[in-house]
Amino acid sequence: MAYEDVLYDAEGGIARITINRADVRNAVRPRTYEELTHAMARAADDPEVGVVVLSGAGDKAFCSGGDIRDQSKRVPPVGRAHMRRLFNLSSVMRAMDKPVIAKVRGFCVGGGNEINLFCDMTVASEDAKFGQTGPRVGSIPVWGACQLLARFVGERKAREMVFTCRLYTAQEALAMGLINQVVPAEALDATVDALCSDILDKSPQSLRIAKLALNAGSDRDFYSAFFPSAELLASIYGNEENMEGITAFLEKRKPDFRRFRRAL
Fold first, then answer.
1. Whose CA is closest to 6, among 55, 60, 65, 67?
2. What is the mean pLDDT for each group of 10 consecutive residues in the chain (264 residues)?
3. What CATH number has the domain bearing residue 163?
4. What pTM does this model have?
5. Helix pair 76-95, 204-236: axis angle to 10 deg
6. Does 198 map to a domain?
7. What gap in Å lies between CA 224 and CA 54, rounded to an integer?
8. Count of domains observed in the chain
Protein backbone atom coordinates (compact mmCIF):
# COMPACT_ATOMS: atom_id res chain seq x y z
CA MET A 1 0.00 0.00 0.00
CA ALA A 2 1.39 3.41 -0.98
CA TYR A 3 1.02 5.83 1.93
CA GLU A 4 -0.11 9.43 1.52
CA ASP A 5 -1.25 10.27 5.06
CA VAL A 6 1.12 8.08 7.09
CA LEU A 7 4.86 7.60 7.47
CA TYR A 8 6.26 4.18 8.38
CA ASP A 9 9.74 3.22 9.49
CA ALA A 10 10.95 0.07 11.22
CA GLU A 11 14.47 -0.20 12.61
CA GLY A 12 16.11 -1.67 15.67
CA GLY A 13 12.97 -3.50 16.78
CA ILE A 14 10.83 -0.31 16.76
CA ALA A 15 8.12 0.47 14.20
CA ARG A 16 7.47 4.21 14.04
CA ILE A 17 4.12 5.21 12.55
CA THR A 18 3.41 8.91 12.03
CA ILE A 19 0.14 10.58 11.05
CA ASN A 20 1.52 12.91 8.39
CA ARG A 21 -1.13 15.62 7.99
CA ALA A 22 0.43 18.46 9.94
CA ASP A 23 -1.32 21.09 7.80
CA VAL A 24 -4.67 20.04 9.34
CA ARG A 25 -3.28 19.19 12.79
CA ASN A 26 -3.15 15.54 11.78
CA ALA A 27 -6.91 15.26 11.43
CA VAL A 28 -7.83 11.83 10.12
CA ARG A 29 -9.89 11.15 7.00
CA PRO A 30 -10.97 7.75 5.58
CA ARG A 31 -7.66 7.22 3.79
CA THR A 32 -5.76 7.99 7.01
CA TYR A 33 -7.66 5.34 8.95
CA GLU A 34 -7.03 2.79 6.21
CA GLU A 35 -3.32 3.59 6.02
CA LEU A 36 -2.99 3.43 9.81
CA THR A 37 -4.70 0.03 9.80
CA HIS A 38 -2.32 -1.22 7.11
CA ALA A 39 0.74 0.18 8.90
CA MET A 40 -0.32 -1.33 12.25
CA ALA A 41 -0.90 -4.72 10.62
CA ARG A 42 2.49 -4.43 8.93
CA ALA A 43 4.15 -3.84 12.29
CA ALA A 44 2.17 -6.67 13.88
CA ASP A 45 3.30 -9.11 11.18
CA ASP A 46 6.99 -8.11 11.29
CA PRO A 47 8.77 -10.61 13.58
CA GLU A 48 11.63 -8.17 14.15
CA VAL A 49 9.36 -5.44 15.56
CA GLY A 50 8.90 -5.56 19.32
CA VAL A 51 7.22 -2.22 19.99
CA VAL A 52 5.28 0.36 17.99
CA VAL A 53 5.44 4.15 18.44
CA LEU A 54 2.55 6.20 17.09
CA SER A 55 2.92 9.98 16.73
CA GLY A 56 1.73 12.98 14.72
CA ALA A 57 3.82 15.07 12.36
CA GLY A 58 4.95 18.48 13.56
CA ASP A 59 4.58 19.91 17.04
CA LYS A 60 0.96 21.18 16.96
CA ALA A 61 -0.97 17.92 17.31
CA PHE A 62 -0.80 14.20 17.82
CA CYS A 63 -4.22 14.03 16.19
CA SER A 64 -7.03 16.59 16.26
CA GLY A 65 -9.69 13.98 15.49
CA GLY A 66 -11.77 13.39 12.40
CA ASP A 67 -11.48 15.74 9.45
CA ILE A 68 -14.68 17.80 9.64
CA ARG A 69 -14.65 18.36 5.88
CA ASP A 70 -15.11 14.62 5.45
CA GLN A 71 -17.76 14.44 8.16
CA SER A 72 -19.86 17.06 6.37
CA LYS A 73 -20.51 14.52 3.60
CA ARG A 74 -21.71 11.69 5.82
CA VAL A 75 -25.16 10.14 5.61
CA PRO A 76 -26.16 6.86 7.29
CA PRO A 77 -24.79 4.43 4.64
CA VAL A 78 -21.48 6.31 4.50
CA GLY A 79 -21.45 6.43 8.30
CA ARG A 80 -21.84 2.66 8.58
CA ALA A 81 -18.87 2.11 6.28
CA HIS A 82 -16.92 4.59 8.39
CA MET A 83 -17.74 2.69 11.58
CA ARG A 84 -16.40 -0.52 10.02
CA ARG A 85 -13.23 1.39 9.11
CA LEU A 86 -12.80 2.55 12.70
CA PHE A 87 -13.38 -0.95 14.02
CA ASN A 88 -10.67 -2.38 11.77
CA LEU A 89 -8.04 0.05 13.08
CA SER A 90 -8.87 -0.41 16.75
CA SER A 91 -9.01 -4.19 16.34
CA VAL A 92 -5.53 -4.47 14.87
CA MET A 93 -4.14 -2.20 17.59
CA ARG A 94 -5.81 -4.21 20.35
CA ALA A 95 -4.99 -7.63 18.88
CA MET A 96 -1.37 -6.82 18.06
CA ASP A 97 0.90 -8.95 20.24
CA LYS A 98 3.30 -6.11 21.01
CA PRO A 99 2.95 -2.82 22.91
CA VAL A 100 1.85 0.36 21.13
CA ILE A 101 3.11 3.64 22.61
CA ALA A 102 1.49 6.99 21.82
CA LYS A 103 4.00 9.84 21.64
CA VAL A 104 1.90 12.98 22.05
CA ARG A 105 2.77 16.57 21.25
CA GLY A 106 0.08 19.25 21.07
CA PHE A 107 -3.59 18.38 20.63
CA CYS A 108 -4.86 14.86 21.26
CA VAL A 109 -8.60 15.36 21.02
CA GLY A 110 -11.77 13.78 19.67
CA GLY A 111 -10.98 10.72 17.59
CA GLY A 112 -7.32 11.44 18.30
CA ASN A 113 -7.88 10.80 21.99
CA GLU A 114 -9.76 7.62 21.12
CA ILE A 115 -6.72 6.46 19.13
CA ASN A 116 -4.72 7.29 22.25
CA LEU A 117 -7.04 5.01 24.27
CA PHE A 118 -6.26 2.10 21.95
CA CYS A 119 -2.53 2.52 22.58
CA ASP A 120 -1.03 0.62 25.51
CA MET A 121 0.98 3.51 26.98
CA THR A 122 1.22 7.26 26.40
CA VAL A 123 4.09 9.70 26.91
CA ALA A 124 3.23 13.36 26.36
CA SER A 125 5.07 16.65 26.15
CA GLU A 126 4.17 19.37 28.64
CA ASP A 127 2.27 21.32 25.98
CA ALA A 128 -0.09 18.45 25.11
CA LYS A 129 -3.88 18.90 25.39
CA PHE A 130 -6.41 16.10 25.75
CA GLY A 131 -10.18 15.91 25.43
CA GLN A 132 -13.26 14.75 23.56
CA THR A 133 -15.16 16.89 21.06
CA GLY A 134 -18.18 14.82 19.93
CA PRO A 135 -21.20 16.69 21.36
CA ARG A 136 -19.59 20.03 20.46
CA VAL A 137 -19.76 19.10 16.76
CA GLY A 138 -22.99 17.11 16.82
CA SER A 139 -21.35 13.70 17.20
CA ILE A 140 -20.64 11.10 19.93
CA PRO A 141 -17.33 9.40 20.80
CA VAL A 142 -18.68 5.84 20.48
CA TRP A 143 -15.47 4.46 18.94
CA GLY A 144 -13.69 4.09 22.26
CA ALA A 145 -14.30 6.92 24.71
CA CYS A 146 -17.78 5.75 25.73
CA GLN A 147 -16.45 2.23 26.35
CA LEU A 148 -12.85 2.59 27.56
CA LEU A 149 -12.37 6.10 28.95
CA ALA A 150 -13.99 5.34 32.31
CA ARG A 151 -11.49 2.50 32.83
CA PHE A 152 -8.67 5.03 32.55
CA VAL A 153 -10.03 8.04 34.42
CA GLY A 154 -13.07 6.79 36.35
CA GLU A 155 -16.77 6.98 35.56
CA ARG A 156 -17.37 10.52 36.81
CA LYS A 157 -14.39 12.07 35.00
CA ALA A 158 -15.22 10.21 31.80
CA ARG A 159 -18.74 11.65 31.83
CA GLU A 160 -17.32 15.13 32.44
CA MET A 161 -14.94 14.79 29.51
CA VAL A 162 -17.59 13.49 27.11
CA PHE A 163 -20.43 15.81 28.16
CA THR A 164 -18.48 19.09 28.42
CA CYS A 165 -15.82 18.61 25.72
CA ARG A 166 -13.30 20.47 27.89
CA LEU A 167 -9.59 20.39 27.17
CA TYR A 168 -7.17 19.10 29.81
CA THR A 169 -3.46 19.80 30.19
CA ALA A 170 -0.89 17.04 30.09
CA GLN A 171 -0.44 17.31 33.85
CA GLU A 172 -4.22 17.01 34.37
CA ALA A 173 -4.29 13.99 32.05
CA LEU A 174 -1.47 12.41 34.06
CA ALA A 175 -3.22 13.06 37.37
CA MET A 176 -6.44 11.42 36.17
CA GLY A 177 -4.64 8.35 34.79
CA LEU A 178 -5.19 9.03 31.09
CA ILE A 179 -1.46 8.99 30.27
CA ASN A 180 1.72 7.52 31.77
CA GLN A 181 4.28 10.30 31.73
CA VAL A 182 4.77 14.02 31.01
CA VAL A 183 8.14 15.40 29.95
CA PRO A 184 9.50 18.64 28.46
CA ALA A 185 9.04 18.77 24.68
CA GLU A 186 12.77 18.56 24.08
CA ALA A 187 12.96 15.32 26.10
CA LEU A 188 10.00 13.56 24.49
CA ASP A 189 11.86 11.64 21.79
CA ALA A 190 14.60 10.43 24.12
CA THR A 191 12.08 9.42 26.80
CA VAL A 192 10.05 7.33 24.35
CA ASP A 193 13.23 5.78 22.92
CA ALA A 194 14.29 4.76 26.45
CA LEU A 195 10.86 3.25 27.11
CA CYS A 196 11.08 1.28 23.86
CA SER A 197 14.53 0.00 24.83
CA ASP A 198 13.18 -1.08 28.21
CA ILE A 199 10.36 -3.02 26.54
CA LEU A 200 12.68 -4.62 23.96
CA ASP A 201 14.73 -6.08 26.84
CA LYS A 202 11.68 -8.08 27.96
CA SER A 203 10.47 -11.50 26.82
CA PRO A 204 8.32 -11.10 23.67
CA GLN A 205 6.17 -14.13 24.46
CA SER A 206 5.55 -12.81 27.96
CA LEU A 207 4.55 -9.40 26.59
CA ARG A 208 2.27 -11.08 24.07
CA ILE A 209 0.37 -13.02 26.72
CA ALA A 210 0.32 -10.08 29.14
CA LYS A 211 -1.24 -7.74 26.57
CA LEU A 212 -3.98 -10.22 25.71
CA ALA A 213 -4.67 -10.84 29.40
CA LEU A 214 -4.79 -7.13 30.19
CA ASN A 215 -7.17 -6.56 27.27
CA ALA A 216 -9.57 -9.34 28.22
CA GLY A 217 -11.88 -7.34 30.48
CA SER A 218 -11.99 -4.16 28.43
CA ASP A 219 -12.42 -6.15 25.21
CA ARG A 220 -15.79 -7.28 26.51
CA ASP A 221 -16.78 -3.69 27.28
CA PHE A 222 -15.62 -2.41 23.90
CA TYR A 223 -16.90 -5.08 21.53
CA SER A 224 -20.29 -5.52 23.19
CA ALA A 225 -21.03 -1.78 23.15
CA PHE A 226 -19.42 -0.63 19.90
CA PHE A 227 -21.75 -2.11 17.30
CA PRO A 228 -25.13 -0.91 18.63
CA SER A 229 -23.64 2.50 19.46
CA ALA A 230 -22.04 2.72 16.02
CA GLU A 231 -25.37 2.01 14.34
CA LEU A 232 -27.09 4.70 16.41
CA LEU A 233 -24.43 7.25 15.50
CA ALA A 234 -24.48 6.31 11.82
CA SER A 235 -28.26 6.72 11.78
CA ILE A 236 -28.05 10.42 12.75
CA TYR A 237 -25.37 11.42 10.25
CA GLY A 238 -26.63 14.19 8.01
CA ASN A 239 -29.67 15.16 10.06
CA GLU A 240 -30.28 18.78 11.03
CA GLU A 241 -28.82 18.60 14.53
CA ASN A 242 -25.72 16.71 13.40
CA MET A 243 -25.12 19.19 10.58
CA GLU A 244 -25.49 22.19 12.90
CA GLY A 245 -22.36 21.12 14.75
CA ILE A 246 -20.40 20.44 11.57
CA THR A 247 -21.55 23.61 9.79
CA ALA A 248 -20.77 25.76 12.82
CA PHE A 249 -17.25 24.35 12.98
CA LEU A 250 -16.64 25.01 9.29
CA GLU A 251 -18.10 28.52 9.59
CA LYS A 252 -16.01 29.18 12.71
CA ARG A 253 -19.01 30.06 14.88
CA LYS A 254 -20.59 28.70 18.03
CA PRO A 255 -23.23 26.05 17.28
CA ASP A 256 -26.81 26.69 18.38
CA PHE A 257 -27.85 23.36 19.87
CA ARG A 258 -30.26 25.01 22.31
CA ARG A 259 -32.84 25.37 19.57
CA PHE A 260 -33.22 21.59 19.47
CA ARG A 261 -34.64 21.69 23.04
CA ARG A 262 -37.47 24.07 22.25
CA ALA A 263 -41.06 22.92 22.51
CA LEU A 264 -42.63 21.80 19.25
1. 55
2. 96 98 97 98 98 98 93 90 96 96 98 98 98 96 96 98 98 98 98 98 97 94 92 96 95 95 79
3. 3.90.226.10
4. 0.96
5. 170
6. no
7. 26
8. 1
Which range marks the domain in which residue 72 is found? 1-185+203-264
Tens-digit pLDDT profile for residues 46-89: 999 999 999 999 999 999 999 988 888 889 999 999 999 999 99
Burial 21-56 (b: 16+ CB within 10 A, else e): beeebbbbbebbbbbbbbbbbbbbeeeebbbbbbbb
State pLDDT tens for residues 131-155.
Answer: 999 999 999 999 999 999 999 999 9
Q: Is residue 192 a part of any domain in this protein?
A: no
229's CB contacts (< 8 A; 6+ apart) are: 140, 142, 146, 147
Does a structural domain hold residue 193? no
Rounded Cα distance between 230 and 35, Å, is: 21
Distance, CA of 106 to CA of 264 (rounded, Å): 43
Residue 178: inside a domain:
yes
Contacts of 150 (CB under 8 A, 6+ apart): 157, 158, 159
